[in-house]
């Protein structure tokens, strides 16, 4: 298995000035609440747990809950509305 790292050093993928990371966190929490049918506290707990265990929330969601990775990323990381 090959691994690739992508570093967005010049904010071309995510516009850091628009405070994109808090928005992504909010979207991930909402996604977890909706798709796993848990409350907000449990969604936060799972998001943080999977981040620590797998280096990304998505890793735990796929492994433990069979979440479709493409659907999760499209639902939580689409920042088109933030672009000028």
Average of the residue pLDDT scores? 84
SSE series: HHHH
Given the structure, what is the number of helices? 4
Give the terminus-to-terminus CA distance. 37 Å
Low-pLDDT regions? none
Kindly provide the radius of gyration, computed on alpha-carbon positions and rounded to a whole number of angstroms.
13 Å
The tally of beta strands, per DSSP, is 0
- Determine the structural class based on helices, strands and strand pairing: mainly alpha
Anisotropy-based shape: globular
Strand content: under 5%
Q: Mind summarizing the main beta sheet?
A: none
* Helix percentage: 55-70%
Written overview of the protein:
- Helices cover 60% and strands 0% of the residues.
- The chain is mostly helical.
- The longest helix has 17 residues, at 20-36.
- It starts with 19 loop residues before the first helix and ends in a 7-residue tail after the last helix.
State the main characteristics.
84 residues; globular; mainly alpha
Strand-helix topology:
Layout: H1 20-36, H2 40-54, H3 57-65, H4 69-77
In short:
With 84 residues, the chain is mainly α. The chain contains 4 helices and no strands. Helix 1 packs across helix 4.
